[in-house]
C-alpha cells in the first residue's frame, strides 16, 4: 500500500515538473488559455490541467529555397537566399500563428520573388544590398505581428540561364578587345 502511494506521488511529481532551458521561454496554458510566460529554470505545472509549450529564442538560420523569378527586364533567373530570425515575443509566436517557422519560410519565398521581380537583372546582380534590405523590411513588418524579428537576409545564389551567360561572356570579351585597342593607342609614323 505504501509502495503504491509512493509510486503515485512520484508519477505526479514527474508529470508536474518541467525544465525550461536557458535559451527558451515557456508559454503556460491552463485549460487552453495562456496564463503566463515562464522564464528558464525548474517549473511546476498542474498535471492534465496545464500545458507548457517551450519556445526557442536563439537566432535561427532559414534557407530560402531557390525561386524561379522573372526580373523587371523579363530575364528568368533562379535565386536562393538565407534569412536569420529570432523569437522576441514567445506568447505571440505561439498564439498568433500556428507554425511560425513554416509561415516565415512561405512569406520569405513570396517576398523574394516580389522584391527581385521589381529590379532588372543588372540591378539584381549589382545591388544585392538594396534587395536584401527590401526583403528584410517586408518580412519584418509581417513577422513582428507574430512575435518574430528578422535580423538579416542575404541573397545566396543567383543562377542565370545558359543563353544569358553566353551573351554576357560575349559582351565582356567585346569590351576587353575594345579596351585593348584603346590601350595600345594610335600608331605613330616616324
Automatic annotation (TrEMBL):
Keyword Protease: yes
SUPFAM superfamilies: Band 7/SPFH domain
Transmembrane segments: none
Organism this protein belongs to: Mycolicibacterium chlorophenolicum
Stretch list, region Disordered: 169-190
Start and end residues of each Band domain: 15-172
Pfam families per UniProt: Band_7
GO CC annotations on file: plasma membrane; side of membrane
Keywords tagged on the record: Hydrolase, Protease
Family per similarity comment: Belongs to the band 7/mec-2 family.
Protein name, per record: Modulator of FtsH protease HflK
PANTHER family, per the entry: AT06885P-RELATED, BAND 7 PROTEIN-RELATED
Molecular-function GO terms, alphabetical: peptidase activity
BP terms from Gene Ontology: proteolysis
Amino acid at each position: 500500500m505504501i509502495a503504491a502511494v509512493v509510486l503515485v506521488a512520484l508519477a505526479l511529481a514527474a508529470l508536474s515538473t518541467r525544465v525550461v532551458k536557458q535559451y527558451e521561454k515557456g508559454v503556460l496554458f491552463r485549460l487552453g488559455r495562456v496564463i503566463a510566460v515562464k522564464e528558464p529554470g525548474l517549473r511546476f505545472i498542474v498535471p492534465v490541467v496545464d500545458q507548457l509549450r517551450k519556445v526557442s529564442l536563439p537566432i535561427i538560420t532559414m534557407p530560402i529555397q531557390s525561386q524561379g523569378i522573372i526580373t523587371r527586364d523579363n530575364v528568368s533567373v533562379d535565386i536562393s537566399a538565407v534569412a536569420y530570425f529570432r523569437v522576441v515575443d514567445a506568447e505571440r509566436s505561439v498564439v498568433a500563428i500556428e507554425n511560425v517557422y513554416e509561415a516565415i519560410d512561405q512569406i520569405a519565398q513570396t517576398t523574394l520573388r516580389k522584391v527581385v521581380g521589381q529590379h532588372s537583372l543588372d540591378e539584381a546582380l549589382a545591388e544585392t544590398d538594396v534587395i536584401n534590405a527590401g526583403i528584410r523590411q517586408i518580412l519584418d513588418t509581417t513577422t513582428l505581428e507574430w512575435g518574430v524579428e528578422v535580423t538579416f537576409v542575404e541573397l545566396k545564389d543567383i543562377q542565370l540561364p545558359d543563353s544569358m551567360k553566353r551573351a554576357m561572356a560575349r559582351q565582356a570579351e567585346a569590351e576587353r578587345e575594345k579596351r585593348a585597342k584603346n590601350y595600345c593607342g594610335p600608331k605613330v609614323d616616324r
